[in-house]
Amino acid sequence: MAANHHTHETNKPHRYEGPKNHLITFAVSILLTALAFFAVMANLGKTFTIMFIVLLAIVQAAFQLYVWMHAKDRGHTYAKIGIFMGGIIALTAVAAVVYWMWW
Amino acid sequence: MSATHHAHGSLPAEPEKATLEGRNKILGFWLFLGGETVLFGTLFATFLGYNNVKGIGDGPDPAHLFDLKLVALATLILLVSSLTSVFAVQAMHRHDKSKMLLWFGVTVVLGLAFLGLEIYEFVHYVHEGHTFSTSAFSSAFYTLVGFHGAHVLFGSLWIALLMLQLVKKGLTVVTAPKCYVAALYWHFVDLVWVFIFTVVYLMSKVG
């Protein structure tokens, strides 16, 4: 970084790697989605299938957040705190309502 | 003043983060998305609470109602639209306004295609006797999925208006954060859909 110190910001080398990472993320997303659909059609047992497809959804969500929404980049600490706080409160709501209504 | 200055040849590499206002806008938007997560979380909670035999009442049950082929197509459309909005932001980093307009345009078209499928789906369900007030399950279903559809509609209109602003005002340090934030919103809407197809559609077909 320091070696490339120019006076004009336009001369700064590009910090993004181009579309490669995003295309890989896209391919993985399609793969995870297809896997979830196949898991449901393959009749692998109720509890296992539900746990498996929810896990796939969480992995896919993490890919979206970290690669496509750039949460992995520098300077996203507060952004991540904001979205994870929301996620924790949302999960608490889901757990509370499901527990309250099912049992 | 500084906006017009940047428009003429000296736009920084990341125009969306060039000003304090731009950076604050992006941070504020992430906090808003945290709030949106809570909102969708409670709707998911309601759906999960009612998505059992007790909640279906006299209406058709989800396993017979949902068509996974239609859902797979809708999912594919939304995933591709997320990728095209990534391409729009990358074009922004190359300061390529016409490519930005192209990729945002494709994103809006895909968003509207998704909405078309959803409208078709809802009309079909109503035909099957699955209306908003049929059962607790149907109310929770239409609220959650319809609320996501409303987000897709809002995002499509938002991006379309930003495209007009890009044409009119060009790519500047003022318009760049708006485009970046709209792309974040679009990814978030796609992320919510991942949980909708998993929790609403796929889980209903299990067991």
Automatic annotation (TrEMBL), chain A:
Segments crossing the lipid bilayer: 21-42, 48-69, 81-102
Topology in the lipid bilayer: Multi-pass membrane protein
Signal peptide (UniProt feature, chain positions): none
Keywords: Cell membrane, Membrane, Transmembrane, Transmembrane helix
Main location: membrane
Keyword Membrane in annotation: yes
Location(s) in or outside the cell: Cell membrane
Entry keyword annotation includes Cell membrane: yes
Entry-linked InterPro entries: Cyt_c_oxidase_su4_prok, Cytochrome_c_oxidase_bac_sub4
Superkingdom in the source lineage: Bacteria
Record-linked PANTHER family: CYTOCHROME BO(3) UBIQUINOL OXIDASE SUBUNIT 4
Similarity-based family: Belongs to the cytochrome c oxidase bacterial subunit 4 family.
Protein name: Cytochrome C oxidase subunit IV family protein
From TrEMBL, chain B:
Residue intervals passing through the bilayer: 27-50, 70-89, 101-120, 140-167, 179-203
Main location: membrane
Gene3D superfamilies: Cytochrome c oxidase, subunit III, four-helix bundle
Organism for this UniProt entry: Paenibacillus thermoaerophilus
InterPro entries referenced in this protein's UniProt entry, alphabetically: Cyt_c/ubiquinol_Oxase_su3, Cyt_c_oxidase-like_su3, Cyt_c_oxidase_su3-like_sf, Cyt_c_oxidase_su3_a-hlx, Ubiquinol_oxase_su3_dom
Protein's name in the database: Cytochrome (Ubi)quinol oxidase subunit III
Keyword set, alphabetical order: Cell membrane, Membrane, Transmembrane, Transmembrane helix
Topology versus the membrane: Multi-pass membrane protein
Protein family: Belongs to the cytochrome c oxidase subunit 3 family.
Residue ranges constituting the Heme-copper oxidase subunit III family profile domain according to the UniProt record: 27-205
UniProt subcellular location: Cell membrane
